[in-house]
Design brief:
By secondary structure, chain B is of the alpha/beta class. Chain B is built from 13 helices and 6 strands. The chains are: A alpha/beta, B alpha/beta, C alpha/beta.
């Protein structure tokens, strides 16, 4: 592992809450690691587990799925699907040997810029400790 | 002794911690003053080793121990340092209680009332909470920080008439009695006068430091309320003071005479 | 093969200060399919938009990536620009390299690498975009206004005057809201009733405004232009159609209770109106205090009513309204007694809050405008006002400034001196915030002409002693402890959202902040809109507001509604779900996951060889689909996809981002 190795984290962010929360973190000029790359989705319920698996296959060191707090979904109940779906997916990933720190599901509202920055910091720190993802990664 | 015998009478088993030591007296606010936490940490860890929760009779101890306990449970870094320093493992598994809480939550004040053999018939007693028992409210989670009721209910269970007065949650002057006796006397006098104005015959406290400071202030007042520790009232009401007296543990005149 | 253009914005130094814009532009030029790549200082400006339009025409671009700010900011701007230049607006993708990159990362190299990645992902997304056409949907030109205070009334009047119908829902039995409780208003000392009650009457008689009193909005379905709103009306036990408003019932009712309108300082009857100028001027029975409804005795009102309007059998009423837009104007409450034990509020009758003080001042209040303290009715000679009671106090959970208290406290002190010339007002304050036309002058007048004594500091304790309320505090400017034996203490309690505002926010699907105030779509540029299209905000629902601000808000929201209603049809975002019928197996797992009931079963007729066969497939109702994409994940066949966020697009973004520029390997 090279000294300046930085983890790569792919995040799926719901456009109403978490994406806007990340915007707020920007507007407030919060400082967080440049390890994260966001993909804007209409709802965390849009995130197919295959997207998460693909990210890990292609070498992502961590994946974040983030949306509105349960009860606050712009589409009424999309994040409830997320909650159920990913409690299963998370266990499956861990069964496959993935460290739990590499995959997180978080509820970050449009008002929680600081929370977004905090989650990115935590994930980056945790994954930096773990080193690159080797488990599901395809040999490219 | 009053507490232990009273507790026995109520069916609570209290074991004195072997080799106990001072709680540290003040919870340090500086985040790097870890050494000040070593003493309460050791006390907590000892209780854990003894396999029991911790009960204290003192507001100050409760304050330091409960906050230390919370910190140790929440902050792994500080916990590690303390564990290494004291050479004991402890991660906040145990709970810390004030005896008043045990009486309220375990025994129940209604049950306590049934065990009373010498009710404090209609003595007007001012409950004095002071500050450390209640604040910081978030950490202590003891009672309402500005409108506490626990001691009033305790006194009522013993048959006394609690009086409400505005200074019941003011500070007694605390450790200023070491460095600035006048300040302490001023603070404690204000408490006593406030209780006096409310018509209190006695004033009950749950903290030895408060008691000490109040006694200091009482010297210079005309007919101040009589000062008692809550365990004394408890022992008296439960009728265990006679036993204690026989065994030489409770000197005469500790309990004030009822007027 | 697409012909994609990439336009990188420097945003002055907002982006260029941290991201090497030229490097990003050069990297973009190297991506296959990118035939044009350039950067400019302000891409959203007119010259910037012209650059884009020229490139679209000259290079025949069929896909656009604008690497600039958040799509929440300017996606619409660039889509419109593309459309003007002849490109389908849905062939535009924003790459957010400002909010998500240059503003949050310190290291220039890392920020530039990340910006490059973001641009590459956007290029891969736009490569897979298809031109989309919005569907057109009809709209109902009728508005719902929730809350009948000054903001709600102003909104309702403006919309109604523009020629559209309005349903005004008010939870109380009268409109007027908080302003009806006020005595005078700052900084002009206008009598609140004199300016408010004519407006209340105007609302009541406006032919286009329908009032739903004692009502709440309990359900909202649908979307902009086509909301279905469920309204639940509590029983009033009086048939308002029959009632002639003679108020004989109120006169004769034997049951008295503390008046909520008078903040408990006065009494009201179990049947009656909140205050004599109530609109509609119709009585309501407070069931909890009615002897007949509680104990089956009395019934005097029923017997004496000349028109037999009293109806003890009346039930809750629930009905639905179809509306095209919703304005939320639910206003504010103030922090209650439970928050102020240290000030003895709730314990000592002579410690009151500012709304109660307004009632003492009001000529229609319990003391007919004479300042009398509640305990013994004496005229207080020393009054202490405590500002920031709960506000700017994270310990009370309210870190914000309630904004109106500095001004109304100055007003209270002024009015006090006018009414009690030998009295002294003391005001404990943290800072004086008097931003507003004539506001600072007003505060100065209170100090210089009306003798208000301002003490900069906090109060530590309030307690009763010898019939006085002792206030202990500190004057931080003089560096002294202060003790005042006052006759009356007035708390400028923190402004909070209305009780129930959070629940209503969930019904409306509008996000609220940590304090429960509703979030604007953009705090600066879209202050009366919410992120939910068709739902607008007016007044203190979005944060503490004074009257002029609430009224300006209300008119702004009404103007937004009028603009919406000036259309005969609305364009629906085409970013909705679509079924590939050739892949759909007809399992219909998508149907139950759709929160909008937008998916139905349809019989597909196909020729197989020489035979005609029918099989079931899913079909999406474009009018109902909101584009959440839940169905696309539930679909086992991969037949359901979401336009603009297709599986292929998201996977392509994943791949592009995992390549990560600049990661040393």
């Amino acid at each position: 592992m090279s000294h300046d190795w930085q983890p790569r984290i792919v995040a799926f962010a719901c456009r109403w809450c978490t994406y806007a929360g990340a915007d707020l973190a920007g507007t407030r000029r919060m400082d967080y690691p440049a390890s994260i790359r966001l993909i804007r989705v209409p709802c965390s319920g849009r995130v197919n587990p295959s997207f998460v698996v693909r990210a890990f296959q292609r070498g992502a060191d961590g994946v974040l799925v983030a949306g509105c707090h349960p009860g606050d979904c712009h589409y009424i109940e999309g994040n409830l699907f997320t909650r159920r779906r990913y409690s299963l997916v998370k266990r499956l990933l861990e069964y496959l040997g993935m460290e739990p720190e590499r995959f997180r599901v978080e509820w970050i509202s449009a008002a929680e810029g600081a929370r977004f920055a905090q989650v990115v910091k935590e994930m980056t720190e945790d994954i930096s400790q773990l080193g690159p993802n080797a488990k599901m990664r395809e040999q490219l | 002794m009053t507490a232990r015998e009273s507790a026995r009478c109520l069916g609570i088993s209290l074991e004195e911690l072997e080799d106990w030591q001072c709680c540290g007296a003040v919870f340090p606010l500086a985040t790097d003053a870890i050494i000040n936490l070593a003493s309460p940490f050791r006390t907590l860890a000892s209780a854990h080793q003894a396999g029991a929760d911790l009960v204290t009779l003192c507001s100050g101890c409760l304050n330091v121990l409960r906050r230390t306990n919370k910190l140790v449970a929440a902050d792994a870094e500080i916990r590690k340092k303390l564990e290494d320093f004291v050479e004991m493992k402890y991660a906040g598994e145990r709970k810390v209680f004030h005896l008043l809480e045990v009486l309220r939550d375990e025994t129940g004040f209604d049950q306590l009332q049934k065990k009373v053999v010498h009710p404090l018939d209609d003595v007007t007693v001012a409950p004095y909470y002071g500050c450390l028992l209640l604040r910081p409210a978030e950490d202590m989670a003891f009672d309402h920080p500005d409108k506490p009721v626990i001691m009033g209910e305790f006194l009522r269970a013993l048959g006394a008439k609690p009086v409400s007065y505005p200074f019941q949650t003011e500070c007694c002057g605390s450790y200023l009695s070491v460095s600035s006796v006048d300040s302490t006397r001023q603070a404690a006098s204000a408490v006593l006068k406030s209780a006096q104005a409310a018509g209190a015959q006695w004033l009950v406290t749950s903290c030895p430091t408060c008691l000490y400071n109040l006694e200091l202030a009482a010297e210079s007042l005309d007919e101040p309320p009589r000062l008692v520790y809550f365990t004394q009232l408890l022992a008296h009401a439960l009728g265990v003071d006679a036993y204690l007296e026989e065994n030489g543990a409770l000197a005469k005149n500790v309990m004030p005479e009822v007027n | 093969m697409r012909r994609i253009g990439v336009f990188v914005c420097s945003c002055g130094l907002n982006i260029a200060g941290r991201v090497d814009v030229q490097k990003v532009t050069d990297a973009a030029a190297g991506i296959p399919g990118v035939v044009h790549s350039e950067n400019y200082k302000y891409m959203c400006s007119e010259p910037g938009q012209n650059l884009i339009a020229d490139a679209i025409r000259q290079k025949r671009l069929d896909g656009l990536v604008v690497a600039a700010c958040s799509p929440a900011m300017h996606e619409l701007t660039f889509r419109s620009a593309a459309k003007l230049a002849g490109l389908n607006p849905y062939m535009v993708q924003m790459a957010n390299i400002r909010e998500h990159c240059s503003w949050v990362h310190r290291d220039e190299e890392q920020a530039t690498a990340k910006a490059t990645d973001i641009v590459r992902a956007a290029v891969e997304k736009v490569r897979r975009d298809q031109p989309l056409e919005p569907t057109r949907i009809p709209l109902t030109k009728k508005a719902l206004v929730i809350g009948g205070g000054i903001a709600g009334m102003q909104s309702a009047l403006d919309i109604a005057d523009a020629g559209y119908d309005v349903v005004l829902v008010e939870k109380d039995a009268t409109i007027g809201g908080r302003m009806a409780q006020l005595s005078e208003t700052f900084p002009t000392l206008d009598c609140a009733s004199c300016i408010l009650t004519p407006k209340m009457a105007e609302v009541a008689r406006h032919p286009r405004i329908q009032l739903a009193m004692c009502s709440r909005v309990t359900q909202v379905a649908g979307y902009v232009g086509n909301f279905t709103v469920q309204i639940t009306q509590a029983p009033t036990y009086v048939d308002w159609e029959k009632c002639i408003g003679c108020m004989d019932c109120q006169e004769r009712c034997p049951s008295r209770l503390p008046s909520e309108f008078d903040r408990g300082l006065g009494k009201r009857k179990a049947i009656g109106v909140d205050f004599p100028q109530a609109v509609p001027n119709r009585p309501v029975i407070k069931a909890d205090h009615c002897l007949y409804l509680q104990k089956g005795r009395c019934g005097i009102c029923e017997k004496i009513c000349p028109v037999e309007a009293v109806d003890f059998q009346q039930q809750e009423k629930v009905w639905e309204e179809e509306v095209g837009a919703i304005i939320v104007a639910t206003g504010f409450d103030v922090l209650g007694a439970e928050a102020f034990a240290e000030y003895g509020y709730g314990q000592y009758p002579d410690v009151i809050d500012s709304l109660a003080y307004e009632r003492l001042n009001s000529s229609s209040g319990p003391t007919e405008g004479v300042i009398r303290r509640p305990s013994d009715g004496e005229i207080p000679k020393e009054v202490v006002f405590i500002q920031c009671a709960g506000s700017r106090d994270p310990d009370k959970g309210k870190a914000y400034c309630s904004k109106i208290c500095c001004m109304y406290t100055a007003k209270h002190a002024t009015l006090y001196r006018h009414k009690v010339p030998d009295g002294q007002a003391y005001i404990f304050y943290m800072d004086i915030r008097a931003g507003g036309k004539g506001y600072e002058e007003f505060v100065q007048r209170a100090v210089e002409q009306d003798g208000a004594l301002y003490l900069r500091g906090r109060v530590s304790r309030v307690y009763e002693e010898d019939g006085k309320i002792v206030v202990k505090g500190v004057d931080t400017l003089a560096g002294e402890n202060i003790e005042i034996a006052a006759d009356l203490v007035v708390l400028a309690s923190a402004v909070t959202p209305r009780t129930g505002a959070r629940e209503l926010a969930q019904v409306l699907k509008v996000p609220a902040d940590q304090d429960g105030f509703y979030n604007e779509a953009h705090p600066k540029l879209r202050p009366v809109e919410t992120v939910t299209a068709g739902v607008y905000l007016a007044g203190a629902v979005a944060g503490p507001r004074d009257i002029p601000e609430a009224v300006a808000n209300a008119s702004g929201a009404a103007a937004k509604v009028a603009v919406l209603f000036s259309n005969d049809e609305l364009e629906n975002e085409p970013l909705i779900a679509a079924v590939d019928e050739s892949k759909c197996s007809g399992c219909l797992w998508c149907v139950p996951v759709c929160p909008f009931d937008a998916i139905e079963e349809k019989e597909l007729i196909e020729r197989v060889g020489s035979k005609e066969v029918t099989r079931p497939v899913a079909t999406v109702n474009a009018g109902l689909c909101q584009g959440c994409g839940a169905c696309s994940v539930a679909c086992r066949d991969g037949a359901m996809n979401l336009k603009g966020f297709t599986n292929e697009q998201i996977l392509a973004e994943v791949e592009a981002l995992c390549l990560m520029t600049g990661s040393p390997e």
